[in-house]
Design goal:
The protein has about 170 residues and is mainly alpha-helical. It contains 7 helices and 2 strands; from the N terminus they run H-E-E-H-H-H-H-H-H. Helix 2 (about 40-50) runs parallel beside helix 4 and helix 4 runs antiparallel to helix 5.
Length: about 170
């Protein structure tokens, strides 16, 4: 894995996420929630699809921490912890799934972003003293996950175009 290129991809996605998908931009307002895609987590999912669990663990921590610093809402380090736990789990089972299929990328992004965002929203509300709102948090996480899942196959196509510089070997039978 070329860490500098991964950092550049993650930084670019974080910039796009913060500059384009903001309230008033391309964020979608639904029932007092601004749904935004988590492009940084989609970068982590891409890495989990093509690299071993240990480098994905480190990348997940770094990506999650950059997302924590970018938003500064909720406990610092929570997204980093959730990312470094969820992404290596995906990496461990990557050989069993057809990683280059659009429906797999969509479904994986949907499940991953929903799980990470739901735990993050519930924990952020609890630490802020707002109480436990699991259904409301699930609704908000689902909106973010749907938005991320719709964009995930397009990001995967762009990232797969960089498979040479990233040192990714994609067998033709996937």
């Amino acid at each position: 894995m070329r860490w500098l290129l991964v950092a550049a991809l993650a930084y670019g996605c974080l910039l796009i996420e913060r500059a384009v998908f903001w309230p008033g931009g391309l964020a979608v307002h639904v029932d007092d929630h601004w749904a935004r895609p988590d492009l940084v987590l989609v970068v982590g999912l891409f890495l989990a699809f093509f690299f071993e669990p240990l480098p994905v663990f480190v990348a997940g921590w770094c990506l999650g921490l950059s997302s924590d610093f970018a938003y500064l809402a909720g406990p610092l380090g929570l997204k980093a912890l959730l990312s470094c736990l969820a992404l290596p789990a995906v990496s461990a089972v990557r050989a069993e799934i057809p990683r280059t299929r659009i429906w797999v990328q969509f479904a994986s992004a949907l499940v991953l972003v929903f799980a990470v965002h739901w735990v993050w929203y519930v924990t952020a509300r609890l630490t802020a003293g707002a109480g436990l709102w699991p259904v409301r948090s699930a609704e908000e996480a689902l909106l973010d996950a749907l938005y991320s899942a719709v964009l995930a196959p397009y990001l995967f196509m762009a990232f797969l175009a960089l498979r040479g510089p990233l040192r990714i070997a994609v067998p033709s039978n996937i």
